[in-house]
Amino acid sequence: MATIASLQNFPGFSKESCPQDWFPGSEEVSTGTTLVAVEFADGVVIGADSRTSMGTWVANRVTDKLTPVTDSIFCCRSGSAADTQAITDVVKYKLNFAEIEQGRPASVRDAAMAFKEICYEYRDSLMAGLIVAGYDKSTGGQVWCVPIGGMAVRQPMCIGGSGSTYLYGMMDHMYKENMSKKECENLVLQAVTQAIRRDGSSGGCCRMAIITKDGVERKLWLNNELPIKY
After folding, report:
1. Per-position DSSP letters for 55-124, written without gaps between them
2. How many other β-carbons are positioned within 10 Å of the β-carbon of residue 102?
3. Catalytic site includes residue 33
4. Which end of the chain, N or C, is less surrounded by CB atoms within 10 Å?
5. pTM for the whole thing?
6. What average pLDDT score do residues 84-110 get?
7. Catalytic residue among 33, 70, 88, 212, which?
8. 43-73 tens-digit pLDDT
């Protein structure tokens, strides 16, 4: 950004003669995004791309949009990067406080409701589309969708972000009930890869997390390792 500032202040340089999107400093930082989450018998598989953009400017190509909320609950973030990071920080604090107060680990539903309350109360100010996924002993693996506006609904499979537009038909066709862990991994990887190919606001790597009673397993596919079929 220092380079852009020095260019704008260069003697004789006319900013008005250049396209506005050449100067991304005034744009909001957005996670653009493709998010995918799928439940299976023993837990959940979540995945996302890694592109963060400011208008047409790619601000970060290796972002981690799968943010841990507790040891076994993750939040997949799309929309405004600032909004989603702020909400996640508040929910982390709330759940930590609740765990101490109640003397038990927070459930996935507790986390989803905490996200929902903030997103609904400040729905006119925030741009945050979230997927809350994780594992707890009482209910097992769960995926909760918290879209813009503050609704919260549990779904066995959920997609979100700008790249999800390209995935509805694919997920309707390929998702089926009682899929194995390996099948869920393959579905999430193929979905994120497809969105990276088709959506201009999605790109970079595919990051994945498998959350079960044994903990969290993280996986990464670099851009040149994605299963692109021509």
Report:
1. TTEEEESS---EEESSSSEEEEEEEBHHHHHHHHHHHHHHHHHHHHHHTSPPPHHHHHHHHHHHHHHTTT
2. 10
3. yes
4. C
5. 0.86
6. 96
7. 33
8. 999 999 999 988 888 999 999 999 999 999 9
